[in-house]
Structures are given as structure tokens and as C-alpha cells.
Fold this protein.
Amino acid sequence: GGADSSPAELLEEYVRVCEANPKIFSIEDPFHEGDSESFEAMRKRLPNIWVVGDDLTVTNAERIERFAKSGAINAVIIKPTQAGSVTGDCKAIQSAQSNDIKTIISHLSAEVADNFIIDLAHASGAEAVKIGAPLHERVEKYNRLLEIEEQRLVRGVEFGFPDLRRRLRGQAARGHEGERLVDAVGEVAVARALRAVGDAAER
């Protein structure tokens, strides 16, 4: 009803809602980005919920590693244009994955009709994508997802579609995992970025 709540009170409300609604599996930026201690408390109280960092981590490799190690998050939003380059995106993704943090490749609220983030999700093995309602510039991203589904070349990348998840689990149970796919353009772009990260590390 518009009343202010303390972080402790808000945490209790999150616990109440999640326990009453077991289908909830993810909460993004549950607290102010300056309150990582409340993130940590939520991870302890709700260990099966994805506690997702966005404003907390801002697609920054160092911040992702910091809050992963502190136990504040177990999932993170990756916004490609936020990092400033594909190399920056890859560094953020590698930081998350090396700390067992789930990655969600996300669009921005103001974005052009481009579907690269879908291929970036494939290339990096992201657990999910976040692209909003299928309207305007977002349609291209949904079309790319549909192309991937039709090609049946996805292995282990879940985009939040229950039918796709069921199909992937069924394939795994039958021993037919399928092939890992990144289309030619996405694969080349991400491969170059990963090489750039490796080259920079060697220097």
C-alpha cells in the first residue's frame, strides 16, 4: 500500500510470497544496489531462488566476481551494450561462469531491432534471455528464438520456454542431447571477443 519497509521487513515479505508461490524461481535486484548484505541474507533464506544481480553488478566482471564470492547472488543480468563492447560482455560472462553464477542475457529498454543477444546467449551457454513482450524491436529476437527451435540445434540453453525445456530434458533422457549451435555470425563475433580476452590476459 505504498508504505516504506526496512530491508529486514522486505526480506520477510519475499520469503512469505515465495513460500506461498512455489513457481517463483527468480527475483531480480530484490534490494537497493548498495545493500549487498540483504542480498546475502536472501540467498540464505531462499537458497532455491535465483537472486539476480542487475544494478548490483552492472555487467562488470569485477563486481560480478565480488558479489559471487560474498554469496550475494547466484544469477546475473548481462546487458551487452552496458559493458561497452562484446569483449566486456565476455569478461562479465566468464566471471559469472567461473563462479558458478547463472547468466541471463538481457536487452535494454531502448534497443534497436537486432537479435545478436540471442546468439550471444547460445555462444556462452547462458541459462536464460530477457527480452520482454514480443512487440516492436523485440520481435526480431523472438524470431531468432523460433529459428533456433526449428533447427533443433540447441543443447542445454534454456530460454524460459517450458515446452523447450521439456523437449531438451526428454532428449537428454533418451541420450540425444543434440548439437551445440551458434550461427555463423554469432559464433565468429563471440569467438573473436573470447580470443581478445585471452590475448589481453596473456599481455
